[in-house]
Design brief:
alpha+beta, three-stranded antiparallel beta sheet, 7 helices, 2 domains
Length: 137
C-alpha cells in the first residue's frame, strides 16, 4: 500500500479506500493467481528465505540493542543507516528476516509488563514490519 501511495503521490488510506471500493483487497496475492510466481515480473517475485530485507528499527529498540549479547545483531545495527524521523530516528538495517526476528526477541522486555507505551509501540511497529517481510520471503 505504501509503495503504491508513494508511486501515485497519494496517502495510503486513499489506496486502501480505492481497493476496498472494488473489492480488490479480498483477492489472493498476484503470485498465487499466476501459479506460484510463474510469469511474474521480477519486482513481484518473492525473495528467497535467506535474502536480506531492509527494515527500519525504531530508535528505542536500536538503543536497547546496542548492549545486546548477540554480536550479529550489534554488527548489523552498526552497519545500518540512521534516518531522522521528527524528534526521533530509525536505523535502516539490511539483514535476513531471521536476524530481524532475533533482534525483536532481544527487545521483548520493551513490550512486556511495566514497559512504557512508547516501548510497546516501537516493539509492535518493528514486529509488524518483520511480519510483512516474512510473508514475502
Amino acid at each position: 500500500m505504501k509503495s503504491l501511495a508513494r508511486q501515485y503521490g497519494v496517502a495510503p488510506k486513499t489506496i486502501r479506500r480505492a481497493l476496498d471500493a472494488v473489492g480488490a483487497r479480498d483477492l489472493p496475492d498476484i503470485p498465487d493467481l499466476l501459479g506460484g510466481g510463474v510469469g511474474v515480473e521480477p519486482a513481484l517475485q518473492m525473495p528467497s528465505p535467506g535474502t536480506a530485507v531492509v527494515l527500519d528499527v525504531p530508535d528505542l529498540l536500536a538503543d536497547h540493542l546496542q548492549d545486546t549479547e548477540d554480536a550479529g545483531v550489534r554488527e548489523v545495527l552498526r552497519g545500518g543507516r540512521t534516518v531522522r524521523r521528527g524528534q526521533g530516528y530509525s536505523v535502516r538495517v539490511t539483514a535476513p528476516v531471521a536476524l530481524h526476528q532475533a533482534a525483536l526477541q532481544q527487545c521483548a522486555a520493551l513490550a512486556g509488563e511495566g514497559s512504557t507505551p512508547a516501548g510497546r509501540k516501537a516493539h509492535r511497529a518493528y514486529a509488524d514490519r518483520i511480519a510483512g517481510a516474512a510473508r514475502t520471503s
